[in-house]
Amino acid sequence: MPVPPTAAAPAEPDLGHHGDAEATPGLRDLAVNVRHAPMPDWLADPITAALGELAAYPDPAPARAAVGHRHGRPPDEVLLTAGAAEGFVLIAHALRDARHPVVVHPQFTEPEAALRAAGHRVDRVLLDPADGFRLDPARVPADADLVMVGNPTNPTSVLHPAETLAALARPGRVLVVDEAFADTTVAPGVEGEPQSLAARRDLPGLVVVRSLTKTWGLAGLRIGYLLGDAGLLARFAAVQPLWAVSTPALAAATACATPVAVAAERAIAADLAADREHLVARLATLPGVRVAGRPASAFVLIHRPGAAALRERLREHGWAVRRGDTFPGLGPDWLRIAVRDRATTDAFIDTLARILEA
């Protein structure tokens, strides 16, 4: 029989809880960080065409070459996966010999969940909300031989400087940087994705995890990829099931690596930044609501005492937001809110304000 939690042994966060569990049909969804928009023809057409090729086994070679070209890497430095989540599972199983895995939190919980499911004992580095959830490389134990960190980090939306992350790389360590939301970030005067390590080939043990789910609304298709040293990726490929990525998903990966796609992605990220600023500004007008850090992605993390009850009231009024207590390092007074268009944000803030005034 499970032992009930005590003051000495607090309840562990539910690492298997994700935003899709919040998005009950009938509620307006601010819990899931997937963009909802019509699929462009340059993406829809190859996916549709791929449905006529399902009798043949998937061939990942063209997609690997396309993704590698996008990031300035040869094809053998790309491993395509059934979503970023599969990448974490492959890493956890291939690196069973890791002696001291460390996960930097708060962040997406699947990396730690995958490690624990593979039998690893995991240490956590919890970033400080009072410091804006900024990462200090010195806080990561020197003997950690597997380090996992998000950038920008889900759920905090904080974008760590590339050189801060690069300082974590060293011989004998695998550094896994989850860049599932890197394509949502922009910075004034910066071309491409600010602070991304996707093109860095000089850092020992670096593995970058990417996803095509968020910007292009492909959560149901399951497509992501790993970038890193060819020898290291070969270890991950050795534990991957045969033909893990479907032909339509490979077609999507190829299409999303084209210059047309990258240009569209940059334009979407710029629009997202403006919508995020609007959300942050509206949240600042609410009593007792504090936005965490400096949001840089498709979601915003807020703190307010009594947020767990507030989330339930929002559900009663037709809105779904993401609870924060399932993320290590947070608790019931935190909520994550997806960035949407300004009209949706205004309707949400108006509802939230009425609840807080009641």
Question: Please, could you describe this protein's structure?
Answer:
With 358 residues, the protein is α/β, with parallel strands linked by helices. The protein folds into 2 domains: 115 residues, Aspartate Aminotransferase, domain 1; 218 residues, Type I PLP-dependent aspartate aminotransferase-like (Major domain) (Aspartate Aminotransferase, domain 2, 3-Layer(aba) Sandwich). 33% of the residues lie in helices and 15% in strands. The protein is built from 11 helices and 12 strands. The strands form 2 sheets. A 7-stranded mixed sheet has the order 2-8-7-6-5-3-4, with helices on both faces. A 5-stranded mixed sheet has the order 1-11-12-10-9, covered by helices on one side. α5 links the parallel β5 and β6. α1 packs antiparallel against α8 and α2 packs parallel to α8. It is globular. The N terminus is likely disordered.
